[in-house]
Amino acid sequence: MKNIIQQCLICGIVLMGFQVKAQKYEALIITGQNNHYWQGSSVVIKGILNNSGLFNVTMVTTPAKDEDMSGFNPDFSKYDLVCLDYNGDAWPEETKRNFVHFVKKGGGLVVFHASDNSFAHWKEYNRMIGVGGWGGRTEKDGPIIYWEDGKFKKDKSAGRGGSHGKQDEYVVQTRMPEHPIMKGLPSSWLHTKDELYHSLRGPAKKMQVLATSSQPTDRGGSGRQEPVLMTIKYGKGRIFHSVLGHTGKNNNNTTLDAGFMTTYLRGTEWVATGKVTQTVSSYFPDAEHVRIWEDMKIPE
């Protein structure tokens, strides 16, 4: 009987006349270094997660660039998932080992935008994120991944990994409409003015491309359909990877974009649970109109 009552409590059903709240998941945001304005983006990420009611959120800030990193070693075992808003100095070897263990044993990981630039020389991190850019990444780190004819393809030619054109609005195309993260979203929607990464390289093992977008070559793009939303399996862990979300000191709106917020939050729930319980807002953008949600909360 005790076990039955505990199960009911976790499920958040009405028990003995009381409404019990559903379980919240423990999320750790790691930030503190980035070539982007992390002071703005991390606040938004924390707000998105807090406002959802799905997570208890802890945010830790690493030492600044070139400062002593030896004491940075969060206890990952306290959390269900880690959200990285980080592109900076290497972590201590013990921290890296603990992080690999955390994800392999089933911990969730969410990376967005420049966090896929980080740790270029960390083999296991590159496996976790599937593809990444900059940091000296070249053909030695894996092929360039792009979408064509209904599937992603590999370009194994030599060259650097990672580039982007001018900041533009661009249409995001859903490629896996039945995946829990994408289910119920429109087949295409307009994303706010942002950097569209292209020529990302990596091992791309156990990776699924959920959505793509393209930018013309005369705007600095590749002209190809580039992966913008991805999932990766690493051991027992689930990873959600979004290239959206550029943040500068004078432009913090990309993380407040409706498409970014919705897919980020859905991806975060998926890495924690393997499913998505959220409905799609009626205010979600279409293929012609951008929507910005300044209050960091997804409307019904």
In CATH's first tier, which class applies?
Alpha Beta
Discrete helix count: 5
Give average pLDDT, whole number.
92
Helix/strand order, N-terminal first: HEEEHEEHEHEEEEEEEEEH
Distance between the termini: 38 Å
Can you walk me through this structure?
The chain is 20% helix and 26% strand. It is of the alpha/beta class. The chain has one domain (23-273): 3-Layer(aba) Sandwich (Rossmann fold), CATH 3.40.50.880. The protein has a nine-stranded mixed beta sheet with strand order 4-3-5-6-15-14-13-10-11, sandwiched between helices. Strands 1-2 form a two-stranded antiparallel sheet. The protein has a two-stranded antiparallel sheet with strand order 7-8. It starts with a helix and ends in a 27-residue tail after the last helix.
Brief digest:
This protein is of the alpha/beta class and 300 residues long. 20% of the residues lie in helices and 26% in strands. It is globular, with a radius of gyration of 19 Å.
Give a quick set of tags describing it:
Rossmann fold, 300 residues, disordered N terminus
Present the secondary structure layout.
Elements: H1 2-11, E1 14-15, E2 18-19, E3 25-31, H2 38-52, E4 55-61, E5 81-84, H3 93-104, E6 108-112, H4 123-129, E7 144-148, E8 151-155, E9 163-164, E10 168-174, E11 188-194, E12 197-198, E13 207-213, E14 226-234, E15 237-242, H5 258-273
Parallel strand pairs: 3-4, 3-5, 5-6, 6-15
Antiparallel strand pairs: 1-2, 7-8, 9-12, 10-11, 10-13, 13-14, 14-15
